[in-house]
Amino acid sequence: MAAPWIDLVDPTADEIDDALDVPVDPGILDVLFAPPARAVRASVERHGDAVVAVLTVPTPAPDGLEVAYLELDVVATRGAVLTVRKTGPAGELVGVPEALARHEAHTSGELVHLVVDDVCDRFLDLVDVLYGAIDELEDEVDSLPGPTVRRRLADLRHELLEARRAASATRAIVRRIIDGRAEVSGMPLFSGSLEHRFVDAYETLVRTTEELDIARDLLSSVRDYYQAKIAENQNEVGKKLTVVASIVLVPGLIVGFYGQNFEAQFDDPYWNIGTAVALIAVTTVAQLVFYRWRRWI
Length: 297
Prior knowledge:
This protein is an alpha+beta fold. It has 7 helices and 5 strands, in the order E-H-H-E-E-E-E-H-H-H-H-H. A 5-stranded mixed β-sheet has the order 1-5-4-3-2, with helices on both faces.
């Protein structure tokens, strides 16, 4: 017999009681009425004749620099499945999974699989968004101002860590279902053939965490390139300052060697103002030619 699917948004206790075909366990109400948090902790637990799963659904912004993790609660009994969508801190709301919206005849376990599989696909979509944001930053790192680059590096690093944490927690939920640790007494919710579908979802989450590790390495490469670029620019500035100091050094040495009291030197056949100026000009030009030949300036 097909199990009905009921979807509620910020429900009351009476709405939950009417939707479920089993007595409402106090533990279920504690989960469903917990205020939505910015850091949702994914979990799956058995409460009496129902299994309650708290899922985190990633919802990235178009630029990938900010990702909201919205809470989606699933209550599964042998005869029905209830999904509870909570309004987020900023008014966000999880969209209805497309597979559920067009579902036909399914058991409770199959409906739960549709929800979990949709969440896994959203994690893969998040990986694509983060890859795009990293590629965009890599292309623009040479043209963006320094503070902007540092801010985007920090934001992307934070989002990668949060995404991996959420994906790992969701993977642990799927692992519990595969191991049979999320069942109700009596007839099991997840048959042997259905567990194979959850294995596919588990592998999707494994792939997600691996892709996130690769994305973190790519972001580290962008950061290393940016730091090398800063060091190179500093070296160029230091090289030019050294050239300027060297050009000034030789004229200073000439003037210091002969002294600056020109009136006392006028009778000296080896020294006069013209000789000093000529020596300074020749040595300066020679240095400029040499530095230009070496491509130091």
